[in-house]
Amino acid sequence: MRVLHVVPSLSMRTGGPALAAVEYALALRNLGAASTIVATDMAGAISSRRQRRVMPADLPEGAEQLDVRLFPARAPHRLAFAPA
Questions:
Q1: How far apart are alpha carbons 15 and 54 in whole angstroms?
Q2: How many CA atoms within 13 Å lie on the side-chain side of 20?
Q3: Who has the most CB within 10 Å: 9, 29, 53, 83?
Q4: Distance between CA atoms of residues 4 and 72, nearest Å
């Protein structure tokens, strides 16, 4: 089985969805399922006026063990828009 997790941001600054996505993916991997997480590269909250790119230190623990794909966000950031 292959599972795709799509979240607006994988930064811990954005709260629970980032942590939940990583924990779900790790649990699925332990059950033998392939899992990919797709998110924008935004490090701050989507409502933040100033955005910077996510750094490895911003990611939840365990993300480095997973297939994580971060795509560059573009305006309007409030929609977590990443056409790539």
A1: 14
A2: 9
A3: 9
A4: 18
Q: Which two tokens stand for residue 78?
A: 């409030």
**72-63-57-82 Cα dihedral, nearest 10 degrees:** 10
The torsion of the CA quartet 76, 66, 35, 54, rounded to 10 degrees, works out to: -10
Q: Positive or negative, the Cα torsion across 10, 13, 15, 16? A: positive
Please give the sequence-ordered ranges of beta strands (E in DSSP) within the chain, or none if there are none: 2-9, 34-40, 67-71
SS3 content of the chain, % helix, strand, coil (to 5): 30, 30, 40
pLDDT in tens, the chain (84 residues): 999 999 988 988 877 889 999 999 999 999 999 999 999 988 866 656 666 788 888 899 999 999 999 999 887 766 777 877
What pTM did the predictor assign?
0.82
